[in-house]
Amino acid sequence: MNKVILITGASSGFGKAIAERLAAKGNIVYGTSRKEKEDKNIRFLVVDVRDRQTIDNAVNHIVEESGRIDVVVNNAGMGIGGSLELATNEEIELQMGTNFRGCVNVCQSVLPIMREQGGGQIINLSSIGGVMGLPYQGFYSASKFAIEGFTEALAAEVRGFGIKVSMVEPGDFATNFTARRVNSEATSKNASYSQSFARSLSIIEKEENGGLKPEILAKKIEKIINTRHPRLRYVVANLEQKLSVLLKRIIPGNWMVSILRNYYKV
Prior knowledge:
Radius of gyration: 18 Å
Oligomer: single chain
Shape: globular
Structural class: alpha/beta
Strand order of the largest sheet: 3-2-1-4-6-7-9
Number of strands: 9
Distance between the termini: 51 Å
Order of helices and strands: EHEEHEEHEHEHEHHHEHH
C-alpha cells in the first residue's frame, strides 16, 4: 500500500531528492518549505521547523486530507561555519533551533498521530558530524550529536507503540548545503582564527562539492522505509568516511582529535 510521507526541508538538497524518489514510487508525499512552492508530484506545505504552530498546522492538514501519517523524514537543517569561541547567541540559536529543536518539534507533533493509528516510522537525519566533532563546524556537530542522543532515546520509548525509529548519518554530498552555509564574519576577521578557518573551510567545501550525489541517499531512505525491521543507525558515505566512523569507535579520543586537526589543517 502506498504510504503517506512527510519530509521536512523538501525544496532542495537531500529533501528534494528523497521527496522526488518516494513520490515517483506512488507514495503520497508532503514536503515542507519555508516559502510557498508548487510541484505536480509533491504536496508542499509552508513550515518553519522552529515554529511549532506551523508544524502542527501542517500535520493536522495532512491527517485531515489523507487520514494518516505513515513516515516522517526529519531532513530540514542548515550549517554555520566558524570558531566556537566567537559564535554569537543568534548563530547558536539558529543552528541548534533549526537542526535539533526543529527535529524535536516535528517528532512531538506527529507522535500522538502515530500512537493513535497504531504505528509509524520516523527517520532523523544526523551526519558524520554527529559522530565526531568537526573543527569550525562545532555547533553543527553539537546539533547532530543532540539528534543522535534524542533518536536513541526516542527509539526505546516508542517501540512499544509500533513506531520504528532510525537515524541516517550522511558523509559529504554534493548539494546546495555548501553554498547556503552561513560563515562567521567574526571568525574570518579574527587574527587568531582567520587563517586556520580559511584553510579548513577550503577543505570542507572541496570535499562537499566532490561528494556523492543526493540520489544515493534518497535510494537508501527508500530502502529503510521498505525494510520490515530497520536498524537504528545507517552511515551513508564513501569508504574513507565509513572507515573514519569505525576508527572513531576504537581509538583513543586524543588520537581522533589529532587526526581531525591534521586533516582539516587546524
